[in-house]
Write a structure and sequence with these properties.
InterPro entries: Alpha-catenin/vinculin-like_sf, Alpha_catenin, CTNNAL1, Vinculin/catenin. It is a single chain. The chain is mainly α. Among the domains are: 112 residues, Up-down Bundle (Four Helix Bundle (Hemerythrin (Met), subunit A)), CATH 1.20.120.230; 113 residues, Alpha-catenin/vinculin-like (Four Helix Bundle (Hemerythrin (Met), subunit A), Up-down Bundle), CATH 1.20.120; 92 residues; 117 residues, Alpha-catenin/vinculin-like (Four Helix Bundle (Hemerythrin (Met), subunit A), Up-down Bundle). Helices cover 74% and strands 0% of the residues. Helix 4 packs antiparallel against helix 7. The longest helix is centred in the first third of the chain and has 46 residues. The N terminus is likely disordered.
Length: 672
Amino acid sequence: MATSPCSSSGVSSSSSSGLGADAGLEIRTRSVEQTLVPLVSQITTLINHKDKLKRSDKTLQAIQRVGQAVNLAVGRFVTVGEAIANENHELKEEMSVACIEARRAGETIAQLTDVASLDHPESDSHITIFTDRTGVVKAARLLLSSVTKVLVLADRIVIKQIITSRNKVLATMEQLEKVSSFQEFVQIFSQFGNEMVEFAHLTGDRQNDLKDEKKKARMAASRAVLEKCTMMLLTASKTCLRHPDCESARINKDGVFHRMRLALEQVIEIVTDSRPNGENEMAPISIYSGIKEFKVRVEIVITNCHSKEMLLNELKLYLLAQSIFPDKGFSKFHTQLRTVNEQPCLVSFESQNQKTKDLMEDLEVAILKTCQCMNELKREVHSAATSLAADLLKYHTDHMVLKALKITGVEGNLEAVAEYTCKLSEQKEQLVEMCRLLRHVSGTEPLEITCIHAEDTFQVTGPQIISAAETLALHPSSKIAKENLEVFCEAWESQLSDMSTLLREINDVFEGRRGEKRVYLSLPRPGKHNANLKALKPVKLDTEEQAKIAKLGLELHLLTSDVDSETEKWEDQENEIVQHGQGMSSMAYSMYLFTRGEGLLKTTQDLFHQAEIFAAEGTKLASALHAFSDQVPDDDKPLLLLEAEKMISMCKQLQITAKASVQGKSATFTKV
């Protein structure tokens, strides 16, 4: 199927200064995002200058320097864009228009910020950033939009390279499918191997560049299929060439080719963000996601007295859990949920004769009881699923069925092979069911996708082992048929090993050790800093304040992701710099959760205490960097020391802010 590369990365974000890029664009890759960050930062500096700024020579010179820096950066950027346009004629027109717009906008910003030589920058005779703020905003918007378009068009070229590489692989696969001699097969397979290596490099880079963790997981699954199927394709094709009249050998080979084509197609769907026939991706339903959604809605449901709707949601969860684990006795949760459900309406009907304070206390109790009940359900479901999975994996570690198939195949014992293929089919069904159970308790969307991939692998590999065993039983002296069965059995064993790793990761996420950020040891414990909690009155933020806090929290979250990706690159995870970096990232993530009303930081006092610890950890990191600088080449050492000094200064400022005493909603909000 021909796929257009037109749905690429783009932008659909805006800054607090009102800078919005093209609404039809959305950033989907880290490389595009990171290229835009410095430009957005410089432009935001210009836009957010105070209207009544003291216009000293120093200020005017700083504004002009920023404007010139933006223009120079855009000029260099456009030069690269124009070179790309000349090399890719199908995008030349669009790229050229975007480059012209970007260059024009950069020059406009340079003109509007040319204020250092003016005695009166607000003079009517010369339009500047001080006299035409709207013009600067307009030029900035045009600049961001056009630069983003250039990046998106450049990204399309990357997508085109992946599609072209996929098409080469498909064309060579068609040749391999039709080949009739060993000599010809060896020549074409050599070419196929080189093309697969190129495709693996391109898709690997793309996988690492993707921002969406679900797409990353899907890409990883597809690439894993292609990697494992390459060896299967080799032995299955050779077996078919050796035994051209063997039906089971043909079925075995066809299965490999079919699976590789599906995996190639999925890679292109992810890269182009499209699905065949315009289908929408259906999100899999799991108990965990149902519980999570329910807990988000519970407060709204309770306060609005939608007890019937609430009960229906709970019963759906209960029935789903009971249908999956019929022997685990979830009736106690059903009873608890029904009891809690009756509470909200009782409160609402009696509220006319109660004080507001009493009403709020009753609602809080109802919410807490409901959430506690759902947490217990979640724990029970997790325990049941992981225990069953662990027992099943332990039971199948000896691979007795696979060993028996190899032995009976070599013996040419068709009857025994048939007996053991039935046992393998039963094992396959058990493992498929295990994957489905683990998906319900996976805890994160990427792990959920990994469970689905594992399920598909068992579904497909089981029948392929059977057809390979039947081929060997029909041709017991065939070395290639024996080798082919070995390859498929190794794939099965490898997937079982992967399941053990997956089970550990699911348990780690549930325990908070991985996947979600681990809890940092210096975090305030519930109650430790909450001595005056009852005296603190909750403050209702207005919409603008909520939006500002949410935006800052999201920026913090993105930064923690960047830190984590960098620390993971270090081979020595016990290194002092890595540990301080990971500790700060974990604390910053807790602050992000605070902006969402989640996590261990419950009050602003908790947040301020965490900020003090965060600053102290930053000071330790700066000290470690100073010590590490002795190992850095002379050319890089000054830059490292400069960053360390900046860090110390920022940590001191953060500590001062965190310790400063404030009163009132406005002052507290500003401090937060």
